[in-house]
Amino acid sequence: MEDKADLKERTYAIEEVFLSPFACKSNCSRGRLRDEKPCSMRTDFQRDRDRIIYCKSFRRLKNKTQVFFSPEGDHYITRLTHTLDVAQIARSIARALALNEDLTEAIALGHDLGHTPFGHSGERILNKLSPTGFKHNEQSLRVADVLEKDGRGLNLTYEVRDGILNHPKNGKPATLEGMCVSIADRVAYINHDLDDAVRAGLLTENDVPKDIRSVLGSGSRERINRAIYSVYETSRGQNFVKMGDEIEEASEAFRTFMFQNVYYSGTAKREEQKAERMLTIMYEYYIKNIDQLPDTYTKLLQRFSPEQVVCDYISSMTDRYAIYTFNRIYVPRGWSFIDENN
């Protein structure tokens, strides 16, 4: 019978043979914030992946908006399905380039742990309210380092933490695996957000400018495949991960089209105004009534400012829970009347 420790050693051996010399090998991690006993079977990156999947913040992603607030239909993209899309695309890129898929997947699954309710609208609102600003990538790392496990954090490896923090386009990931996730995030959201816009009746595929479709293709499947292959052709055997210039330029044009016609559309802005009023009122309420925060968050006040902790709490909410909390605080409850004639 194979010893449990042999499973991990076998993974190390396979990586030495099959991974690119530019890949981040599992036995070369720079370690965790706090030392701990290694797992006898799983590599540190595999262990990080499992920690993220089983944490509360990951489960809450299923009820957080991607684009459309609290959608009623069953097939709209949520922050969780977006995360799974990113993980799939990033792993496909990593596999094509012989990079570390375990590390890539862990980064992808954790990259949006700190996202707010109501999508990027919620992020913009909290950024205006917080004295120190608010960025979802920084909050995702804070969730992993501090907020999970009642203030103890997940104690992830340096490489996963770096990839989570640096997944936005302007980030500079320390590993090629982190670069895979950054590209996959952009490829995923412009494509599935268009699918949602078509599903909602805001756009049709033919509304995408013809010059963009001629380069990227028609339909999300074709566009994603072309993007992945472009990354493979441009990056194979290299110490970088990027798209070819033509696909990159067309993707940026596609992204601009989506901002103009979906993210900043009149319909989206009207809903964002409602969300801003609601989140602003709740933020001010908890700043004035800090003792009304749940115990998990009041404990954090020993280490962090009230403004930071209130942002932690509000950003953790799902769309539905934010609406429920607002109603609980500000909407009168109906009385149960007794029939006085009896």
Please outline what is shown here:
The protein has a single domain (4-118, 133-264), classed as Hypothetical protein af1432. 61% of the residues lie in helices and 0% in strands.
Structural commentary:
The protein has 342 residues and is mostly helical. It has a single domain, classed as Hypothetical protein af1432. The protein contains 16 helices and no strands. The radius of gyration is 22 Å and the shape is flat.
Structural class: mainly alpha
Order of helices and strands: HHHHHHHHHHHHHHHH
- How far is it from the N-terminal to the C-terminal residue, by CA? 77 Å
Principal-axes geometry comes out as flat
- How many separate structural domains? 1
CATH class bucket: Mainly Alpha
* Number of strand elements: 0
What is the tally of helical segments?
16
CATH architecture: Orthogonal Bundle
Average pLDDT? 92
CATH homologous superfamily descriptor: Hypothetical protein af1432
Percent in helix: 55-70%
Q: What is the radius of gyration computed over CA atoms, rounded to a whole number of angstroms?
A: 22 Å
